[in-house]
Structures are given as structure tokens and as C-alpha cells.
Amino acid sequence: MTYTYQCPVRWSDMDANGHVNNAIYSRYLEEARMNAFADLVPDNPQDRLTSNFVVAEQTIKFTRPLVYRAEPVSVVMSVVEIRPVSFKLACEIRDADTVFVTATTHMVAFDSAMGRPRRLSSDERTSLERYS
Prior knowledge:
- This protein has one domain: Hotdog Thioesterase (Thiol Ester Dehydrase, Chain A, Roll), CATH 3.10.129.10.
- The chain is elongated.
- Strands 1, 2, 3, 4, 5 and 6 form a 6-stranded antiparallel β-sheet that branches.
- By secondary structure, it is α+β, with helices and mostly antiparallel strands.
- The protein contains 3 helices and 6 strands; from the N terminus they run βααβββββα.
């Protein structure tokens, strides 16, 4: 199963070359992750220090330029691997006819208070499995 986030293309996302700036795609991917996994973010801000996630690695392949448009693009995401302390996402930024970007994001469960990786909880694994 996949998760799809409808991401607006903002005029401010454009660069001098007349297309969406390459750095902006990371933000689109982040928006999709945050919407897909909002249930993993603890309500209590103090708990967020011990139960968060960091991007360990992200690979982005730019296949076609994306220019400003009124309609959003789809960020399609699936969980392709779940390990004890990490998971990997496969993503596309696309519309009905064109894939603009493919990306792989490796996420690590992290305890910021301790400054180190932590194991995924069973609830986190269950949430991730929805999109695998």
C-alpha cells in the first residue's frame, strides 16, 4: 500500500532557471512524511525528545523539471524496509503522466535526549506497516 500526499507547488519554489529548485524537493518529501506519520509524533513536546526520527540518508533522482502550476503534484510514498531501529521509504513526485523525481529516504528512530538511535516501538512498526 502507498501513501499519497497532494503537495502544492508554490511560486516561491521556483528558481532563476524557471523550474522548482532542486533543494525544494526535499521539503516536498518531508511534508509527505510528516502527513503520513503524524500519528507517530507524541502530543507531549517533552516526549518528542525521546521518540523522534532523523533522516540518515536521502537519495534523489531528478528525472524531469517541474514548473509552477495551479494544481498540486502527488508525492507517492511506500515503506520498503523496516529494521529494528530504522526504515526506508521509496518515493515519487509525480502527476498522472510524469514522474519528476524518484527518491529513497532512510529514516532512523532517534532519542535526542540521549543523542543516539533507539529501537522502533511495536506501535511505530504497526504504523509503518500500513504503507509497506
